[in-house]
UniProtKB/TrEMBL annotation:
Cofactor binding annotation: Binds 1 zinc ion per subunit.
Any single GO BP term: L-histidine biosynthetic process
Protein's cellular compartments: Cytoplasm
Keywords carried by this UniProt record: Amino-acid biosynthesis, Cytoplasm, Histidine biosynthesis, Hydrolase, Magnesium, Metal-binding, Zinc
Family to which this protein belongs: In the C-terminal section; belongs to the PRA-PH family.
GO molecular function: magnesium ion binding; phosphoribosyl-AMP cyclohydrolase activity; phosphoribosyl-ATP diphosphatase activity; zinc ion binding
Function: Catalyzes the hydrolysis of the adenine ring of phosphoribosyl-AMP.
Subunit structure: Homodimer.
Species assigned in the record: Candidatus Desulfobia pelagia
Protein name per the record: Phosphoribosyl-AMP cyclohydrolase
Cofactor(s), by name: Zn(2+); Mg(2+)
Pathway: Amino-acid biosynthesis; L-histidine biosynthesis; L-histidine from 5-phospho-alpha-D-ribose 1-diphosphate: step 3/9; Amino-acid biosynthesis; L-histidine biosynthesis; L-histidine from 5-phospho-alpha-D-ribose 1-diphosphate: step 2/9
Gene Ontology terms: cellular component: cytoplasm
Amino acid sequence: MQKLNFQKGDGLLPAIVQDYESNEVLMLAYINEQAWEKTLATGKAHYWSRSRNSLWLKGESSSHVQLVKEILVDCDEDTVVYRVQQLGGAACHKGYRSCFFRKVDGETFTIKDEPVFDPQEVYKK
């Protein structure tokens, strides 16, 4: 199998996550080689958390798992697009379907979507 170019980005590559059916962009995360291999082995999206400095399975806390239906690789082999089935209806830890729930409106950000779940309830924080 061909390899991704993990030499770039200090071993972290961007993973754009897109809904398999609607093409909606759900989130952007980062993968390292370990996350890449776990994703390929399980069919579930795994990422590298830069804030926690650890591997994480998307949905391990919320049950909002991403089932990978297709993976696209860019021309430089240093960025991927995960086309996923988003279980639980939301990809964003703030409760929205997409992490891109705000839009630029003049000099401010306006929320354009409704939350799917209450993060206080799901994460018990």
